[in-house]
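Hi L.,

As promised, Thiamine-monophosphate kinase:
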Amino acid sequence: MGEFELIRHYFAAAACARAGGDVVLGIGDDCALLAVPAGEQLVISTDTLVAGVHFPDPCDPCLLGQRALAVSTSDLAAMGATPIGFTLALSLPLAEPGWLEAFARGLDIMAAACDMRLIGGDTTRGPLSMTLTVFGRVPAGQALLRSGARVGDLLCVGGTVGDAAGALPLVLGEREGASAEASALLDRYWSPQPQLALGQALRGKATAALDISDGLLADCGHIAAASSVRLAIEQARVPLSDALVRWAGRERALQCGLAGGDDYVLAFALPREELPGLLADGWPIRVIGRIEAGEGVRLLDADGKDVPIDRQGYNHFNA
Ligand code: ADP
Ligand code: MG
């Protein structure tokens, strides 16, 4: 199968490749054309996933397609953007029809969930890797940056953290499990749900935001640095799923929640007066701490005492 036939059959023909919305022209020409409404800004992010580095090889190609698009689209959620579309630069060792069909199906599933469209890409032979570039739009000046957090704001997250890290031993085949807990965690790892609607609801309200990809502590450190403030996290308020606590035990679950990445839940700073309205609207917001004067991130126990942490993450567990 030639390069053009492959592109035509698996990507141009995919449901997610249909033009529409802000996509004026999709796959097939030298470039795609996007219509950005007047008064809005284009929001762009790119991510590369390499086999054996960012995902195990081999793995289920349908799940890989879902995860690749979710991971990239989550950056749009973190900016409060409305998704438009994405490009896919794919490097493949060989054109295997079953693999390509399943991978494209995974892209389709996540694209439908995120209202994304495949607008172009590049296809080359080489070790398995993929670069997805996502495009979105936001009303001018309303993108959620990492840099606006203010002393006195609440520190919030958009849901439970740690599930994807809890799933890692299963993903890597170091641990077996067929329980309901194991499959719930695996689902969080392979099919994270970018919090696009929450991000959009936070426009004009949150003062800083990002999506948690490296771990709660590390990513809060990014907000602290960009905003020149200190983020105080109350350990007891870090939301952990029942599945994770049952699967890993409370201590390990907390470690996953603090230091594990790959959850793609939003973390953000919110002025106190904004919280009641957002909760009344039903957003799954959990307050985990506050913004203080200072720098870096601190972790507090139930008595308000500092829990020691290191740069790599949580380092408190009794060995
Ligand atoms: P060019 O020679 O201009 O780089 P290509 O032959 O690489 O064009 O691609 C032809 C068309 O197919 C372009 O519209 C390109 O965006 C699209 N395309 C190539 N690879 C992919 C892919 N993996 N997914 C989606 N679209 C693709
Ligand atoms: Mg090309």
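Residues 314-319 have pLDDT under 50 and may be disordered.

Thanks again for sending the construct details.

K.
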